[in-house]
Fold this sequence. Notes:
- The chain is an alpha/beta fold.
- The chain has one domain (9-319): Rossmann fold (3-Layer(aba) Sandwich).
- The protein has nine helices and eight strands.
- The chain has an eight-stranded mixed beta sheet with strand order 1-2-4-3-5-6-7-8, with helices on both faces.
- The N and C termini lie far apart (58 Å).
- The model is unreliable at 197-214 and 323-327 (pLDDT under 50).
Amino acid sequence: MTAHPNLLPELAAVAGAADIDITDVAAARRRTEESSKAAIDALSYEGVDVTEISAPGLGGNPDVPIRFLRPVAAVGTLPVLLAIHGGGFVLGRAQEFEYFCVEVVRELGIAVANVEYRLAPETPFPGPLDDCYAALLHVSSRADELGVDPALLAVAGSSAGGGLAAGVVLRARDEGGPAIAYQLLLSPALDDRSPSSTEAGAPDADADADAAKESTGALVWRYYLGPGYSGPADADVSAYAAPARAADLSGLPPTSIATMEIDPVRTQGIEFALRLLDAGVSVELHSHPGTFHGSVEFAPTAPSSVRILRGLLDGLGRALSRSPHPH
Length: 327
């Protein structure tokens, strides 16, 4: 395959890692777990306390595991971030998003509730969203016990997790749920109607690869939206599943969106940002040249990834800037 002409040289060695075939979900999960193991094993948790908690599932669903991260020896009440990992709705686990979560804790002194939601196709929509929303409700309602401030609650997600994060925020607005101070969306997958919607945005300019990406994108949404989904023309798809379908984006919290140049979901993020602005929502949008979908995850120490993560941390820190205060 021919590398995309705009791909940053620093990312060339990991570019192929984003090209994930999910036709065989079990095999794809084995491959991604193997490929992520080294990165997880190498991640330092110095200064970070990790505990396993759970949220009661909604409507009789199983309890939702949450990895709860706090600064070691933290005192007082902390802001808190609900974090939602990516993986095309079918892959991944919470710990794979902790390359970002641990920096939020260490650098900003913010607690993180990292959600282990159920995956499609075994659990299609609304199951994964229900799990993330249950985690939001739990963190907010048990704020005193967890030592966090429900008035300083943000939601963040990467890729499919970005779509879930945006769905959680929409649902909280519509259902009178917890007030959310900020949402952070990294390469979010927001729209099943895009012909190139996909989690696996391989940075390749080859025509056959582009066709494969479109097929992967269609498969991602078919897995997530379940056997009743009839395709992009399906008028019954919930905006909580595909937030770009929401007719009204007013009343949502300040938002940060980061998009990658070589990314089939790039345009979705940019268009969502523009619609939020038109709806009166304060938005910070960055489109990063030469990067691809997942490049931050696959190359977190690359200069481009460091810049992206620095920008995300700075925005989150500004949004949740009130100093921790004692009970």
